[in-house]
Write a structure and sequence with these properties.
The protein is an alpha/beta fold. Helices cover 52% and strands 12% of the residues. The chain has a five-stranded parallel beta sheet with strand order 2-3-1-4-5, with helices on both faces. Helix 1 packs across helix 10 and helix 2 packs across helix 5. It is globular.
Length: 203
């Protein structure tokens, strides 16, 4: 079956989001990244900032630490807000995958769409020094992280994403067996990464 959906999971700072944008532009497909956050916020009533921060990563035990207060939207009292957020993401990703050919960035989309034969799953990773440079150049002020603390910051993000992925999928986030293709973006340009992905789905 012809590929209609590409999911791109990525290490923070590896350029996975930029690769996804290049792939979507060259294919003429829709891309769901930050606009997916807006969809989830609209349906859930949760703040976009909360969804962006908590929709892909988790600290140990946080799913058990937060429960939904009484009268909070359509959520049931006592249920974890993180569990409800995942269910909301799950349903929306299923919906958009049915609508039109698209590229979906992160948010366990590779797992959520695991049974689709028209889905091509990609994992983008990079050497830590490459990631440190990319994040320092692009996100240093946004995250207010000193250069000397960047390695620890990235390692902490990796740990949180692994915990989140494990919690919701019972899988290992960076296990190559979960993906059709794994790319090391520190060994090639972002354009070359996009070309490889497109070549794979067109071959």
């Amino acid at each position: 079956m012809k590929t209609r959906v590409i999911t791109i999971s990525r290490e923070f700072g590896s350029g996975g989001r930029l690769i996804a944008q290049r792939v979507a532009t060259r294919l003429g497909w829709k891309i769901y990244d930050r606009n997916l956050i807006e969809k989830i916020a609209e349906k859930s009533g949760l703040a976009k900032e909360f969804i962006e921060e908590k929709g892909e990563s988790a600290a140990a035990g946080q799913h058990l630490a937060y429960s939904v207060p009484a009268g909070f939207g359509s959520f049931l009292t006592g249920q974890s807000v993180f569990d409800k957020l995942y269910v909301m993401q799950y349903n929306i990703i299923k919906e958009i995958a049915d609508e039109a050919p698209c590229v979906i960035v992160g948010r366990c989309a590779d797992y959520i769409l695991r049974d689709r034969t028209d889905c091509f799953r990609v994992f983008v990773h990079a050497d830590i020094d490459y990631r440190i440079k990319q994040v320092s150049d692009t996100y240093k002020e946004l995250y207010n992280v000193e250069a000397k603390d960047m390695r620890k910051f990235l390692e902490g993000l990796d740990k949180k994403r692994k915990l989140y992925y494990r919690y919701n999928t019972d899988r290992v986030w960076d296990d190559v067996r979960n993906y059709e293709l794994c790319l090391k973006s520190s060994s090639m340009s972002l354009d070359e990464c996009a070309t490889v992905i497109i070549s794979c789905i067109e071959s």
